[in-house]
Amino acid sequence: MLVMSRRQGETILIGDEIEIVIAHIGRSRVKVGIRAPRQMPVVAREMKLVREENLAAAGATASDLSRIIARLHP
Amino acid sequence: MPVMETKNFGQISFEPDSELEFPSGLPGFDSRRRFVAVRFVESDPLVYLQSLEDPDLCFITVPILAVDPLYKLKVSGEDLDQLGLPHARQPRIGEDVLCLTVLSVRETGATANLLAPIVVNLRNRRAVQAVASESEYSHQFALMPQEASVCS
């Protein structure tokens, strides 16, 4: 992984179209501004994990249910 | 009483005021806003979250304290706004909110998404899936880990 050191207000460019600004550095959080083409999704990683997890969870079927119940009541 | 066709349970009827409203849907299902929580004695403690807009969409959930009795709920300011809850303190499970965890079934066993619990304001029945940032909880918490295979 490429690691760059940046100060508040400084910018990183990825390719020609993506710009990342270190907007504010707090004690334990960093505010990051992202400028990217509209069609490029920008989400926090945990949001992507939850989205994928929901899509997997929605596929559970009736036979899965009985297996879960069996596990909850050993 | 409204009646709803569902894939898993056939026709179900529900009290109109038992409806849950997710003002911004759930991640991956942004346009699904209306759900009901369905419970059966024989499948207790499971709570099925059945979409009222899609008969095929049903999440299997369980009260989060049944999975982790010490679970610490942390709801972001944005989610508290959606729920119509004050920012002054975190909501209390069972008193202010119902808190459910979504289960998934994989080959290796069932997992619970502790990273993003379903939080329902018990007073206005508004709900969000509260994705926690800076959380130590897993989105795939193993409900009953398979025994490790023995190396030979």
Question: What's the gist of this structure?
Answer:
Chain A is built from 2 helices and 3 strands, in the order E-E-E-H-H.
Indicate the topology.
The complex is a heterodimer of chains A (74) and B (152).
Chain A: E1 11-14, E2 18-25, E3 30-35, H1 45-57, H2 62-72
Antiparallel strand pairs in A: 1-2, 2-3
Chain B: E1 3-6, E2 10-13, E3 19-21, E4 34-38, E5 47-51, E6 58-63, H1 64-67, H2 77-83, E7 97-106, E8 109-121, E9 127-129, E10 141-142
Antiparallel strand pairs in B: 1-2, 3-4, 4-5, 5-6, 6-7, 7-8, 8-9, 8-10
Describe this structure in words.
The complex is a heterodimer of chains A (74) and B (152). With 74 residues, chain A is α+β, with helices and mostly antiparallel strands. Chain A has one domain (11-72). Chain A is 32% helix and 24% strand. Chain A has helices at 45-57, 62-72; strands spanning 11-14, 18-25, 30-35. Chain A has a three-stranded antiparallel beta sheet with strand order 1-2-3, with no helix packed on it. Chain A is elongated. Chain B is 7% helix and 36% strand. Chain B starts with a strand and ends in a 10-residue tail after the last strand. Chain B has one domain (3-142): BH3618-like. Chain B contains two helices and ten strands, in the order ββββββααββββ. The longest helix of chain B is centred in the middle third of the chain and has 7 residues, at 77-83. In chain B, a hairpin with a 2-residue loop joins strand 7 and strand 8. In chain B, the strands form two sheets. In chain B, strands 3, 4, 5, 6, 7, 8, 9 and 10 form an eight-stranded antiparallel beta sheet that branches. Chain B has a two-stranded antiparallel ribbon with strand order 1-2. Chain B is mainly beta and 152 residues long. At the A-B interface, helix 1 and helix 2 of A face strand 6, strand 7 and strand 8 of B.
